[in-house]
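Appendix C reproduces, verbatim, an entry submitted by the partner laboratory led by Prof. M.T., so that reviewers can inspect both the input and the predicted structure.
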Amino acid sequence: RAARAAGGEGGAGEGIAETVQQAQDKMHLESLLNYVAFNRREPQRNFLIDEASAPPPPPPRTKARSTAAVTASVLLSSGAGDMPAASPAAPVTEEAAEKANLEAQMVLKGAMRFKRSDVAKQILGQLTNSQVEISEKTYALMIEAAVLALDLKSASDFLMKMETSGYCPDSDLLDKVMDLYSHQKTVKERERLQSSAASKKPPPPPWRRRRSRSSCRPRRR
């Protein structure tokens, strides 16, 4: 009975952990979808040209918002609160920076599942323009998102910015970047060898070369 009870408790614990993980994955996915929706550019206007009528007028332009306001609307799109919009030159409070980093981390975790390094680059630009101090964990998630997307250049840029900000990346994170570097180096070397082998085809063996008819012995009738 004790063994059965222990087994039941273990199964219940695993079920609870799986439910919590699924809820977290759903939350990260919602954050990523909200981020992409708020960052969607104006749609491209496509229409058939009719010589008899003029094309339709362009849509009215929306009033441009400040960079800080755009960042606040994007990073806090999940409804966790409102960060006060300020001009790009105004300093960001520590509480607002922490909240922005938490929202950015949720979006980055969703970007990691879909291997979207472009989302990490956009978040870095928005936080930098809004003068939000990026935390060490946010930098680490940016690097991991770039590594999963096989984007070595972005991973290296994130790593340099992280070190410039005074953070020391752990060995596991450095190993992931170095593994990606080694993988891409191997792939490029393999492609170079294949292209070199294709361009320098060896001559056919002598027994396969075609001989001229003058060198052939005449056939007997």
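The CA atoms of residues 18 and 52 lie 63 Å apart. Additional entries are available on request from the coordinating office.
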